[in-house]
C-alpha cells in the first residue's frame, strides 16, 4: 500500500510539473489558424485566424505581440433553435437571432487570460475575417483574471469584451460596433481607462456586480447606453465624455463626467442586414 501511494504521489507530481513547464515555456504561433482547447501558454504574432471556439486554461496566458491581427471566421447561421439562458425579455422582444443557441454554434469566441499590449503605431486588432464585416460576425472575448488590453481594437463582435476575472485592465483602446455590449464587467478590481467606445447596442460599458471597478477618462459615444449598472453594480465613474450615450440613472453619478445629448450617428445595431436594435433618438 505504501508503494501504491508513493506511485500516486509521483504521478501527481509529474502532472503538476508538466503543467507548470507548459506555462513557463509557451508555444509560438504566427500566421496560423487556431481553434479548440489550448493546453499551454502561447505567444501570437502576425495574423491569427480563429476558426472555432478557442479556450485557454485559466492558469495559462495568451500573450499577443504588437501589430498582431486576430481574425474570427464564422459559419452559416443555424436557424430554428431555442433561446439561450442569456436571452432576456429585451432580446426576445426584438426577436434577436443572436440570442438563440444556433448563433453560438456558428460564431466563435476567444477565452483566455490575455496580455495584449500593443503600441500606438502597432495596435493589436481583434475583428471579423469577413471582407465586409458586420455586427456579430464573431462572439466575444472573455477575459480571465489579470488580463490586460492596451492599444488594442475590438470590433464587429456580438458581445465585445466580457471581463470574468478580477484585476483586468483595458486602456488606450478602441472597442466598437458590437451588437450587444462593448464591455461587460462581471468581476471586481478592473480598470477601464482612456478608451474610445462606441456603436454598442445594449451598452458601451455594463457593470454586472457590486464592488470596486473604475471607469474613467473614456470617450463613449453613439451607443444605446453609455454606462449601465445592474445587480447593485457601483463602479467609480469619473471624467468620461458621454455623447449620445446616456448614463443609466441606476449608476453612481460620479465626478467630472461630460454628458452631450444629440442624435446618434447611425440607425442602430443590425444583424444579417436587418435592424435589430434601433437607436433610441
Précis, in short:
By secondary structure, the protein is mostly beta strands. The chain has helices spanning 2-24, 89-93, 101-106; strands at 27-38, 42-56, 62-64, 69-72, 110-112, 114-117, 124-128, 141-143, 148-150, 152-155, 161-163, 169-171, 174-178, 181-185, 190-193, 196-200, 203-207, 213-216, 219-221, 227-229, 236-238, 241-243, 258-260, 268-271, 274-278. The radius of gyration is 20 Å and the shape is globular.
Would you write up a description of this structure?
This protein has 281 residues and is mainly beta. The protein has helices spanning 2-24, 89-93, 101-106, and strands at residues 27-38, 42-56, 62-64, 69-72, 110-112, 114-117, 124-128, 141-143, 148-150, 152-155, 161-163, 169-171, 174-178, 181-185, 190-193, 196-200, 203-207, 213-216, 219-221, 227-229, 236-238, 241-243, 258-260, 268-271, 274-278. The chain has one domain: 3 Solenoid (Pectate Lyase C-like), CATH 2.160.20. It has a 23-stranded parallel β-sheet that branches. Strands 24-25 form a two-stranded antiparallel sheet. It is globular, with a radius of gyration of 20 Å.
First-last Cα distance:
74 Å
CATH architectural designation:
3 Solenoid
Contiguous low-pLDDT stretches (5 residues minimum) are 1-7, 10-18
Counted up, domains total 1
CATH class: Mainly Beta
Main β-sheet: number of strands, strand sense, barrel status?
A: 23 strands, parallel
Average pLDDT confidence is: 93
Number of strands: 25
What's the CATH topology label?
Pectate Lyase C-like
The portion of residues forming beta strands comes to: 35-45%
Q: Kindly name the structural category.
A: mainly beta
SS field, number of helical segments: 3
**Form type:** globular
Radius of gyration: 20 Å
Order of helices and strands: HEEEEHHEEEEEEEEEEEEEEEEEEEEE
